[in-house]
Hints:
By secondary structure, the chain is α/β, with parallel strands linked by helices. 40% of the residues lie in helices and 15% in strands. Residues 1-15 and 373-398 have low confidence and may be disordered.
Amino acid sequence: MSAEATAVRPTEDLRFGACCEPLWFPAGEAAARAALSALRGRLHPDRIFDTLGDQLRELAQVRQPAARLEGRELAAAVEALRAGTPADAYGVWVYYPWSGSLVRVLPKAEFRELRLSRNRNKITAAEQATLQRLKIAVVGLSVGQASAVTLAMEGVGGTFVLADFDALSLSNMNRVRAGVHDIGVNKAVLTARALYEIDPYLSVTVFADGVSDANVDDFLAGGGPADVLLEECDDLHLKLRIRERARALRIPVLMETSDRGMLDVERFDLDPARPLLHGRVDGVDVDTLRQLSREDRVAVAMRIVGADTLSTRAAASALEVGSTLVSWPQLASAISLGAALNTDTVRRIALGEFNASGRYYVDLERIVAQPEDDATACTMREDVTVASAVVSRTVTPVLDDAIRRIALAATLAPSGGNAQPWRLAWNGHRLRVRIDESRAGSLLDHALRGSHVALGAAVENAVLTAQSLGLETHLEWFPDGADRLVACDLRFSSAGAGRSADPLHALIGERCTNRRLGTGAPLPAGAARELAQVAEECGARLTLIEDPSGRTRLGEVLGQGDRWRYLSKPLHEEFVRELRWTAEEATRTGDGIDLRTLDLSATDLAGLRLCRSWGAMELLSAVGGGRNLEKFAHRAAAGAAAFGLLTMCGDSSRDFLSGGRAMQRVWLAATRLGIGVQPMAALGYLCMQLCTDAGPWTAAQRRSLADIEARYRAVAPLTEGRSEVLLFRFVMAAAPGTRSLRRPVEAVLTAD
């Protein structure tokens, strides 16, 4: 509207009139400033609201969420937003004639950016732009008012067409958002005013005389067809007539009945041949519906809503209409729920996320229900004794007891995701160790290197246990050259006199993964040297990263790797599969990562459960989010005493088997020193894939991972010819309260 037009518009109280459109005065336009000055001279100062400064400061903060803008920095950010425009010439003044209020707001784009900023990222910026282009028609502004207001608040719809012939009465105010000073005002007008007070840049058209056969096409398609129709009227004739026209115009129709959360969806845009109301009114003559008797119209209404699906109280009330009740009862809570259902469904229809027709119920009385028997409430047991679960299983005495003890010790070795990718077979002469293909070959198990490391650790446990039993072990690597899954044969003979057990053997059952955060306390004196020596004796090299700067940098890059994993669908699927989300599941399977072993706070546990949803991760990926997924690694690094990078010279399967033996001995030695150990292997094994074409990654994902690898190697370098076996996190912390379970030995050990 031009400034000249606004200058001559009346400013008297229009509360009871049909006025529902504000007046706009762009602060930078000379003509508008003149008209604005004249208007301000007629207004009481208490009706002039200028909070533009607050809006600008908030917008500046929204655009720089990671910064804490204060003082001069904040003032500079505000100046940058105005881009040289004088403070008094920035923004738009909006006058609401029905309330006599004059308000200054941000320009349209900035206004909506700030007003809807808290929608992100449940609604992305691109999605919000799509939603703001919608044209939404609403007929029936009792139930419909709450929906229209909710749609406007959420930024769903930029153009609204509202229709209702009725005026607000006091009895409407049990469900219509209005004040007693609004009694007597047309409901469509009231709704339009509410929408403009939420967003003055909306476009709202009002049909204050309602919709009729004469104007139904103008209502639905004047100026272009509506994108969706919310039908919330009581007139049965209009219900059917407006659907006929919506179907012809291919406009989807939503109807919420305010009982049992029933939402009716008719996708005439996708199926223009659909019967009206899913065929519930087949045989009803729309043209003669108004001539039907009251009883016949009630019968049609019951067909529409479904008499057999009404709530008990609604059904009982229906029988009382015209007797003890004037009309159909409706509750504010039900209408608020309906507004939420309508808004959510319109949004998903517009974004192509929901393409169905049908009738849906969100029945709170059934969803939020009193349990019939509180005694049956399920609680998670936290008192599972892992040690007994591991060592006290009853084993059928088929095999030699010594072999069974050796095999049991082998199964206590660590493995990625606690997959336990080993099978053992005893034929009376040799114990064969091979990869269990059903438990190996994950995306993090590139070229079975992770499985070979696990098998190497299992072999080391077997050798240590055999030695404790007075046996000498003879190893043959890859004895079946044709089957590379067969990693090793172990043969045993009596050891000579004077051979004593390796003290590390006693720690096999004590060794575990410790994910406690720790305090950042350093390693005990001499521990670094001792651990490095253990690795060296095995032909490996342990490089320690102890300085705070190095640990911090490593935590940052490990966090980036974690985020990359969470936001990759194949890796996310594996992450969900390897976790055991309940104690019952962990006990039943005897494998995977028991959620309790992660030692998470209640907040972090809740966050992890949110991460279980791929849809949530996919959205984070689409909007470039997920930085909070990196914080676990940051905190783990801050609490660590050191990181240790274990490497071998070479990258053959044999090298990784030997590396697994070295890993186990270093881990056992750390256990003896009272040092907690947590493997942090995922990023290293992901990076191994970059030198091959392996992995279901896009070119963009490979570039991203390569960038992460470069930062990783900057802080955990590999010298030429060496391969990463494992990255350890060493931590000075109490032992974990829960330990990983193992499958029973009879599930692993067989007789050939």
